[in-house]
Amino acid sequence: MELLVEDADIVTMASGAATGPTREPARCLLVRDGRIAAVGPAGPVRAAAGPDARVVRLDGATVLPGLIDAHCHVSDVGYLAAGADCRQPSAPDIPAIQARLREAAGRTPPGAWVTGSGYVEYQLREGRHPTRAELDVAVPDRPAVLYHTSLHACVLNSAALAEAGFADGQPDPPGGAFGRDAAGRLDGVLFEGPMFALFERNFRADLARMSAAQRAGLMQGAGQHFAALGVTAACDADVRRDTLTAFAEADEHGALPMRIYGLVVHDQVDWLLESGLRGRHSDRLTADAVKIWADGGMSSRTAAIHGSYPVAPFGSGILSFSRDELTGMVGDFAARGFQVCVHAQGDRAIETVLEAYATVLGKADGPGGNARRHRIEHAGAMYPALTARAAQLGIVVASQPGFLSTLGDGFAAAFPQACDQLYAFASWRQAGIPVAGSSDAPVITASPLTGIRDAVLRRTAAGQVLGPGERVTARDALDMYTRAAAFAMHREDEIGSLEPGKLADFVVLDASPLAVDPERIADIQVLATVLGGTPVYQASGQFSGVELGG
Ligand SMILES: [Zn+2]
Question: How many angstroms does the Cα of residue 100 sit away from the middle of ligand 1?
């Protein structure tokens, strides 16, 4: 079975295929058995097709390799999508959030917490977090939780505080804090540590309550969300026993509309080794990397830095492990053949991680020493000396250009001197570091086109350009979300560019991000997303009835 895609503006991202006067542009793509059989000018590609090939004409639409998100939380996206959508501007104030939580309560199964997500306190009309009392008005008789979009904070109603065991007068837990009212009573807001523990506990409990079919449906829904944004593959940056099992269930039922590369949380590795799920489950599901957190976040000012923050809570951030502890963990997982991916945002954390990597890699003799492609996740404050060190060690970075437009003003406030050196994509790439593009969704939108725009413009919501010298071209930004992201997940031989023999993962857009005004890149419409030759999303129906398998 063959599919011939005609009359398209095809950006192959193949090495050496940069547009030039001597190369004819690619207009046609031939898919055979889920893989690319030919791509290039119309004549030779048509000649390679059999007489029964099914033809889809795209009338000049743009075709890109399927976009790849090297660090996000696919299962969290699916989980939160089932609860109340409390994002701004559609939920502009606390009464709107209350109405949505009330509505969600009506469809939340008995025993489960009523869940909402997506709010940003300074975008609400009230300009602050909602309180437990306000959540009690909406959901008086059972636990309810409202997650902040960052997933670094949440608000609980009184029933939820009681069920979680949090009481007035309790001191702040290590690695976190409670919000309190003027009288010192808990106001329902949790920050950091207790928030992470609560999210994990609730997510696990809700997954356990579901049937296998419901769990597969959750993963399928998440995959459809990504497919509609043009994403065909993603690294899920914190899979655990229950989520990896749910991905495997969905995969076995043919219900995974994207390729998942799982970063397994470090304390789940013993389970992973017994589960039989390590490595390649199918061409849609792989778990061969381990995730470790070295510090906190940039927007919550918990990233571990040298010096201290000039804004609340005025500390130096939180380092989760000493250098020796980290070296021990990295060495242990590397010895077992895993790719290690360490979350590190602040310069003090990145320095510690690089020291651990240098010890484990045993030599600082340049690229080639890091055969497992150990990664740093985020790398926000990876300043020039650290960049040089990372490049020397051959470290791969997975980072998030889309933070710049959504969280960038907060970065500028927290790093008044160094904000031009944060997320230094151009410098990193010039140093030879493979820089994979990603979203960290659901922290921000999963749209790779937003990330590509932000890598090009680097403009915050308030209009400030952070690090104008770190802007990259649209082609380099696209490379981050295709070839570099495929490399970061050890799949560059199969995905990340449109070349004969590779999997037929591609996305059809109504305009090319390489041709439009950069201001417009995030507004480009995804017309179709095709995975292994099979359409998994289509806005316009051109691929109706095409089923090639892959
Ligand atoms: Zn993340």
Answer: 26
Q: Which of 341, 377, 360 is nearest to 265 (CA)?
A: 341
- Could you tell me the distance, in angstroms and rounded to a whole number, from the CA of residue 291 to the centre of ligand 1? 10
pLDDT of residue 20: 47
Neighbouring C-alpha atoms within 13 Å toward the C-beta of 323? 11
Tens digits of per-residue pLDDT, 382-393? 999 999 999 999
pLDDT at 550: 46
Q: 49: pLDDT confidence band, cut at 50, 70 and 90?
A: very high
Compute the distance from residue 393 Cα to the ligand 1 centre, in Å.
23
- Whose structure tokens read 């229950």? 242
CA-nearest of 545, 543, 544, 530 to 232 is: 530
Measure 104 CA to ligand 1 centroid, in angstroms: 26
Ligand 1 centroid distance, CA of 75 (Å) = 12
Closest CA to 220 of 254, 186, 178: 254
What spacing in Å lies between the alpha carbon of 298 and ligand 1's midpoint?
12
Q: For residue 334, report the distance from its CA to the centre of ligand 1, in Å.
A: 21
Per DSSP, the residues of 210-250 read: S-HHHHHHHHHHHHHHHHHTTEEEEEEEEE-HHHHHHHHHH
Q: CA 322 to CA 241: how far, in whole Å?
A: 26
Which among 101, 105, 133 is positioned nearest to 119, based on CA atoms?
101
Instruction: State in Å: Cα 297 to ligand 1 middle.
Output: 10
Ligand 1 center from residue 69 Cα (angstroms): 11
Whole-number Å distance, alpha carbon 45 to ligand 1 midpoint, is 41
pLDDT tens for residues 68-86? 999 999 999 999 988 999 9
Q: Establish how many alpha carbons lie within 13 A of residue 112's alpha carbon, considering only the half-sphere containing its beta carbon.
A: 20
Ligand 1 center to 83 CA (angstroms): 20
**418: nearest Cα among 453, 466, 477:** 466
Residue 376 alpha carbon to ligand 1 centre in Å: 11
- CA dist., res. 84 & res. 211, Å (int): 21
CA distance 82 to 274: 31
E strand or H helix at 178: strand 176-180
Ligand 1 centre and the CA of 150: distance in Å?
A: 10
Among 326, 344, 410, CA closest to 383 = 344
In contact, 298 and 411? CB cutoff 8 Å: yes
- Is the pLDDT reported for residue 32 higher than 60? yes
Measured at the alpha carbon of residue 20, what is the angle toward residues 18 and 21, in degrees to the nearest 5?
165
The answer for residues whose C-beta is within 8 angstroms of residue 512's C-beta and 6 or more apart is: 9, 11, 62, 64, 524
Q: What are 214's two structure tokens? A: 């419901």
At residue 191, the 3 state secondary structure works out as strand
